[in-house]
Amino acid sequence: MDNSDIARKVFWGILEFGPRDLLAVSQLIGVPYHKVYATFWRFYNDYKLTILASPNLNALGLGTVYFDIKPTKEYRRTLYNAFFKVSNLNMLVIDANDYSTIVGSLYVPFPSRRSYVGFFEYLKSQGVIESYSSAFYETKHRYGLIVDYFDWEVGDYRFDWGSLIERKPETSPIQSSVSLADRIDVYILKELEADALQSFRNMSESLKRHNLVLSSRVLMYHYNSHIVPRKLLSRYRIFRNLKGILRIDYICEVREKNKELFYSTIRRIPYLDVEFLDSSHDLHVSNFYVPYHDYTNFTNYFLKHVSPYCEHMKGHMSLSGQRVSVTIPYELFKDKQGWVYNPLEQAQRVIDEARSLVSPRA
What we know:
The chain has 362 residues and is an alpha+beta fold. It has helices at residues 3-17, 22-29, 33-46, 57-60, 79-82, 117-125, 183-194, 200-206, 216-227, 259-266, 295-306, 343-358; strands at 50-52, 62-71, 89-94, 102-109, 129-137, 139-142, 150-151, 156-157, 237-239, 245-254, 272-277, 283-291, 310-318, 323-325, 333-334, 338-339. The strands form five sheets. It has a five-stranded antiparallel sheet.
């Protein structure tokens, strides 16, 4: 095998076991450990790859709310920054097609799948936003780099838009309306979601910011005894350097008779990052990371092959410097209560921050 073949096998193995267990990767792909180790670090550093762990949201009792909002004129300059006060924020971007629109997603516990609307209604009643649209999605499928499409010699995708292969979504073998994790488990998941290479020693040091003292040995115990057997982690994800990459979101209302064709077609797109599905699978949100140089090909493919299956469709686009992702809301998890989420309290945090940012300009 040449270096590209070995790299392809190594990073395929890392999708399964992550970068923390290269020995397991070695055993899975049948490549000596020293070659796996050298190959991983060479390509990881050369191409500035990012590897993230994906918490199993179903096992944690979390769903996702995808939304877009229009701030009122008074708060148009400040609301984006004020939203970082939301404890359960997942993602936030400014729409490059309409700078007056903020797009984002929130982690919401399953028991709050209906009451979360109070968050947006309160912002509207207090004159902070003019309008909003939102929906609760029970299922979140996450993707990442397709190792077979990646040219390991040059560090970029190489594929033919005319012969794309369908990807299967991640599976969630455990589903629960309440979290199967404890507070320490949630903390470990949060840290691995931010950096899958982080050591337990570093996690132990970081915990001191939360006034908790736990040894790396305790954290390792929770990882091996709780997180792994309870399947609290889904597959790992690999990302290229996202600098200069467009993020494009599409919200589609899928025609009933076209669902299977729609999902089969959209999952063939190599740039697919995340998809959200509601309980009926009628409403679908897809996120893509698209390089500038391939924007036209991507758009043509989507409009020709995907949009015909949609009853209604809406899109958002953001530039690389206008988007932020946030890990699972560790601060909202209590050991005896699970997720403690108050929509009105979170809305008030946004309002207070937005007003404090406006007042110096007065």
